[in-house]
Amino acid sequence: MQKIIFLKYGELSTKKDNRNYFLKILNDNIKFVLNDVNIYYDYGRMFIEPNIDDFEKVIEKLQKIFGIHEIVIAYKSLDRDLDNIKENVINLIKDKEFKTFKVEVKRSNKKYPVDGMELRKIFGSHILKNKDNIKVDVNNPELVINVEIRLKEVLIYFSSIKGIGGYPVSSLGKGLLMLSGGIDSPVAGYLAMKRGIKLEAIYFESPPHTSERALNKVKALAQKLALYNHNIKLHIINFTEIQEEIYKNIPHEYLITIMRRMMYRISALVAYNSNAKVLINGESVGQVASQTLTSMNVINEVVKIPVIRPVCCFDKLEIIDLSKKIDTYETSILPYEDCCTIFVPDHPVINPLKEKCYEYEKLIPYEDMIYKAVKSKQTITISSLDNREFKDLL
Fold it and tell me: Which of 20, 105, 204, 382 is the most buried (most CB within 10 A)?
């Protein structure tokens, strides 16, 4: 029998007329990550035939691909003769240790001469005759033996490995992630990718107030996210001039509000030039002064592009748990300051007024500075296949 992998789609199976569109993107995403594999699929399954024996390595990569609900290692035979299937089952379970079992049969080939209920009895009886000290338990078995009779083949398998679900990355367009060095924004990026959004990222640096290590920290976070996204274009904005002008000319309680309004304006321009349809950030309601509902409304008004906040209703502990799951937490907590943590006033306004923002913004030539910042941005591409380890530079 041939050892193969097949995938269950989960949420993708609800897409009906658009299913082929999503499956093609999932197929392309898998081929990008896995070299030298044969892939074929139908509405119910996607089959992968690796040309290597290291199935654990293949599964590890598949567990980072959105759009996969379950991963199953199966054994395939083109011989659908009943006696042959019975012997294949016995050969596959002979070295397994279990006391109770049940057999599940899926007969998608309705022309097969024996129905599913009868096949369960036949296989169960044959197993009992050929394996000592076991019994059937349909409610809580130690081993479930799955047999699928398909149109051209038979599949036998025992258990599944959970995938990360969601939609295939890029199936629902592109978004621009406002990536700081903190805990929240990488988690927001991960959750956006899970909904099929391909990411680009924008980072605001403010040398000499922020260090090269702070930038390398963000590059390391982008590399973590690129494992799910193929690659990430990281747009680096020099924010020093704007931030210093704000600090010198704006009442300090409004520093964060005006700074965020400038970041939003710049991000919207970069998103437009990159054909990104949304901005994405790690704002969580009430977490800091700029994330009260009033602050979010005042800051958000400077852009027309939609802004999505995947962690907006998570508490901090939930965000931390997810950051640990996706392996960004240890990088995020490294003590290198970013733009959002320097020049923080003692008492930032939590209910800013739009009229005050209009008045204060007239004190600085922000339109010219924004144009200069966007024109001089640096863009680097960080690939999931990149061998560089940015953490070595931290």
Answer: 204
